[in-house]
Each structure stands twice: as C-alpha cells, then as structure tokens.
Design goal:
The mean pLDDT is about 90. The protein has a three-stranded antiparallel β-sheet with strand order 1-3-2. The chain has four helices and three strands. The chain is α+β, with helices and mostly antiparallel strands. A hairpin with a 2-residue loop joins strand 2 and strand 3. The chain has one domain: Winged helix-like DNA-binding domain superfamily/Winged helix DNA-binding domain (Arc Repressor Mutant, subunit A, Orthogonal Bundle). Helix 1 packs across helix 4. About 65% of the residues lie in helices and about 15% in strands.
C-alpha cells in the first residue's frame, strides 16, 4: 500500500466539507478558496476545485454571481444556498461524530502502547 495515495484519498474525502465551510462564511472567489486550502495543506488545484464547485452548484448547494473586476475579466463569487447551509449542518454533525469515534479508537491505541 502507498502512504501518499492513502493520504490523498483522506484529503479528497473531506474536501467538499472544507469547501462548503469556506463558502459558508460569505461570498468567495475560487482562487481565494484555493489559497486557503493550500495554506491548510489541503493541496488543491483548479482542475479539482472547479468540477467540485460545478457539482455543488448542480446539486443546489451553492450559487454564484458574476462580479466585474478592475484588473481583468469578471469573477464568479460563490455563496451557500439555504439547501447548502442545511446540507453543511448535516455534514458538520457527521464530522463531529467521526472525530469523536476516531479519537476514541486512536486514544485507546495510544494507551495500550
């Protein structure tokens, strides 16, 4: 088994959750999302982010608006829909349960070492 591949899969598994969290704070531009995800070591490229944003939009979880830019073409700014906010709430509850369960298991392992 390859450690790097497993680490990448773990990050991909929570990427949608992280993106929805970023968008939930207010209207956000895609490159700002990439920057925040990169700083958090959630290495993401445009080729990963844009298809995910399209899926989220098609699912009705996010919407966007075009905003004119002084330094180039118009930019898409994303925001959460009401459905998206409800969906994120459900994901957050699941995340909290997973963290608690994972901690319970990993802490028991550490105590036995």
């Amino acid at each position: 088994m390859n450690l790097e591949n497993t680490q990448v899969q773990m990050r991909k598994g929570i990427l949608e959750y992280c993106i929805l969290h970023i968008i939930s704070r207010g209207e956000v531009y895609a490159s700002d999302m990439i920057e925040e995800l990169t700083v958090a070591h959630m290495i993401v490229v445009e080729g990963t982010l844009y298809p995910l944003l399209t899926r989220l939009k098609n699912a009705g979880l996010v919407e966007y608006k075009w905003v004119e830019s002084k330094s180039g073409p118009p930019r898409k700014y994303y925001k959460l829909t009401e459905i998206g906010a409800h969906f994120l709430k459900g994901l957050s509850e699941t995340w909290d349960e997973l963290v608690q369960s994972t901690d319970q298991i990993t802490q028991k392992s550490k105590a036995n070492v």
